[in-house]
Amino acid sequence: MFPEQAVARIMDQSFNKTNLKKLVSGGLIGNRIHFFDEIDSTNNHAVSLAGNGAGEGEVVIADCQTAGRGRLRDRIWHSPPGRNLYTSIILKPDVQPAHAQGLTLVAGVAVAELLSAYCPVALKWPNDILAGGRKISGILTEMRIRGRDVDFVVVGIGININMEADDFQGELLGISTSLKEQTSNSVSRLDLTAGLYRSFEKWYRTFIDEGFLPVRERWMEYSDIIGKTIEVTDRSAVQSGTCRGIDSKGMLLLGDEENRTRRVLSGDVSVTKNG
Fold this sequence. Notes:
This protein is an alpha+beta fold. It has eight helices and twelve strands. Strand 9 (237-246) and strand 10 (252-255) form a beta hairpin. Helix 2 (17-24) crosses helix 7 (189-210), helix 5 (103-115) packs across helix 7 (189-210) and helix 5 (103-115) crosses helix 8.
């Protein structure tokens, strides 16, 4: 347990299951809430729940995580209590696995739209949201397939809300930020969580009813790398070129000097100095 947990709990007593249920009542996302003071990983628990029959829209939320994960398995998501949002959403979309991959970008658009009401934000492909050039939110999507169909998808979302400059240490120093750092004001975790679930439901329904195109268009509006020279690193392989946006499945489009376009499925994006 984090040593500061008791103090943090006193400071934010409104952040609990009862109050959250009141704010999200009647919606798909958050129709059932699994709330924990402390958990290893909300995604781990959501995957277990979904595998044992949990319904679509059920959410796992924790005040802190002891083993929060980033998209790459060797990366952790720093998850102290009383400050941020750590939640995972269970989905059961009736789409093919290839199209379900777009749910990471659906989540990105939902988070960006929410946070843009507080401060300017930008989307970094495939799963990060930046504010002031620093990471303020990350997304981890995990899918399970049964036969040729999607069994379930778990979308984990972490948002740095009330962390201060001194809270960012080690590998986070200089690369991460929070809403409080960007706005100089404390933000209600309860209100932000309810707002996230509403925003996610809006874009998830858009994705299911209208397909990926409107999500793609909105994602492009929030992205700040289109037209820039970038590098995409995937393990030891590095690709470079001009970002041309994303395709109809959410893959990154990378243009080369001969005007050819490559599609990139995964990797870490960085803008080159001459980009």
